[in-house]
Amino acid sequence: MLKMPEPMSRRKKSRGRFWIWLIPLALITLGGVFYGQDLVRYFQVRFASDSLLRLQGRTDAFLASYRRYSEMEPPVSTDNPAENPYFKLQDALYQQIDENRRIIEIIARNEEDLGTMAAWRGRYELYELLLRIQLDGRNLVEFSGRGYLPPLRPSLLEERSVQSIGFQLSRYMRRALAYSPDSNYRSIAHFGIALGDLMYFGRTDPAILDHLNAVNPAELPEQLRDEWVWVSAGLYALLGDHENLKVTLEPQKQDTAEVAGTETPEVAAADVPDFLAPYQKQLLIGYARFQAKDYMQALYAVRQVKYDASVPDFYRAEAARMEGEINAKQNGPYFAIPYLQEALRISGDDPFLKERLSAFMPKSM
Description:
Blueprint: H1 10-46, H2 51-70, H3 85-108, H4 114-132, H5 137-146, H6 162-179, H7 186-201, H8 208-213, H9 225-238, H10 242-249, E1 252-259, E2 262-267, H11 278-291, H12 295-306, H13 313-331, H14 337-347, H15 351-360
Antiparallel strand pairs: 1-2
Helix pairs in contact: 2-3, 3-4, 4-6, 4-7, 5-9, 5-11, 6-7, 9-10, 9-11, 10-11, 11-12, 11-13, 12-13, 13-14, 14-15
């Protein structure tokens, strides 16, 4: 005779229910451990009515830290990075960039202003690019006079080419301007396109001047003032726009004052770029005059640098080289040789000067 199965005891039933609930609870717990911060951030941003204002606040905090970073002297080696304040701040800034990018993507899911979101994406491409490249007076002269792109900073960040960052920067900023060319982000968008195109293409183009001239420096973040001066001064010098170069290097504000019926311009000391020495500015002016084929004024500018014994040898040698380049244009290539030889004597050993001297030497039959 077959036996009916005994009914499951209450203890077994409760034990079965326990296992049913234990698995999802364990999964939720694991998800909270690994993704809890992201989930909290998502709900904070997703349901906040002032998400863009909060993002602006986070960006202001980032720029304040970036200003300190840009003023730090890069270390000569990457030894003991954990103890080096430069690398610690660099890593912290990179983490802020990464986190703010995630916030931008969360906001973008519900934000109808596509131009604004493209501009925000472009901003953080710009900030990452500036985190990776070195912009100072020395490499500004090398860029304007020799065509060298700004070098990379010492870094322990994950590898990403500045060309790809420049491409993304230009793409986002062009998209932002396509949606709204007269928006409040137009100046930083034009600035981003100029720098992005420069880093991506590795060359200058006269069309870049249109973007530079569309920038109102007063609309840029204060912490990016020196970066704007570097990019605009370098490109103006390379493209021979000495008028705009002078305005960039010596910004003035017009104070309406009735003095003999005229307005008296006064230099705004706070706006004058302080990372450039006077002899560096003179060389930039010489480059711009040379590119504009104003050879007499170019010669006058570079000679002021060459004959100043207090100027470091690199810049005096560069001024002597420019004397040779100018004489080559005016009188023929052979007239450049004595000046290039003088430049080499001043510098000691400079591969670029050797290459330029070789270009002017008579070719053996």
